[in-house]
């Protein structure tokens, strides 16, 4: 099974790129963030016929979606939102014992307190699901570089939002001893594994970036991962898609 996530930074701007990527890699589950569109504004072409799709968006801001392959799940699944959802930032789906969510954490620049509250609620919700015996996969732009290894040395700035100790502590709480950061588990010492690059001075081409897009998976799922890749060759968003494959 392939599970992928991508902050597209505008679904209308990236319409052709999303469609071409889906045709190329055919993930079984796709999570998109920063749609910047209401469901009515999403291009019809993006509602790929091979997927059950749920769009959860706002005009020109935020927004997430979840796409479940009809080959994986023939019947239309039930999509929903935890009570702490705000600004169209999380959608979840239950597939048997698995709860999977597409998440777009606030970056905190406009309202840092709201970011911390969202992360706190996300961690509590995830840990409650684990306590009930569920497997959980969290996909998306979490807007936190978990450790200094997840930031290029030239971008490490003490006190900057996204690298603050309290954000990283909440990330630890989100993992909670139950979940695995699949990217770091697959590439434990890779100091050049980034998913977002500042959109200036050829930062992407020079690979001077941050790792803020993640797939977090319950240990039984993480133990079955055979591949984890950052698809830095895909698209013109400031983020790259991330994809994991399990057996």
Uncertain spans: none
Largest sheet: spatial strand order: 3-4-2-1-12-11
Helix content: 10-25%
Rg on CA atoms, Å: 17 Å
- CATH classification, class level: Alpha Beta
- Provide mean pLDDT, rounded: 97
What is the H/E string? EHEEEEEEHEHEHEHEE
The assembly state of the depicted protein chains is: single chain
Question: What name does the CATH topology carry?
Answer: Deoxyribonuclease I, Chain A
Largest sheet: 6 strands, mixed
Q: Looking at this structure, what is the CATH superfamily? A: Endonuclease/exonuclease/phosphatase
The number of distinct helices, counting runs of at least 4 residues, comes to 5
Beginning-to-end CA distance, first to last residue:
6 Å
Q: Give the overall silhouette.
A: globular
| Strand coverage percent | 25-35%
- Overall CATH architecture: 4-Layer Sandwich
Domain count: 1
SS elements, strand count: 12
Which class of secondary structure composition applies to the elements?
A: alpha+beta
What does this structure look like?
There is one protein chain. By secondary structure, the chain is an alpha+beta fold. It has one domain (2-246): Deoxyribonuclease I, Chain A (4-Layer Sandwich). The protein contains 5 helices and 12 strands. The protein has a 6-stranded mixed sheet. It is globular and about 50 Å long. The N and C termini lie close together (6 Å). 44% of the residues are buried.
Provide a quick synopsis of the model.
By secondary structure, this protein is α+β, with helices and mostly antiparallel strands. The protein contains five helices and twelve strands.
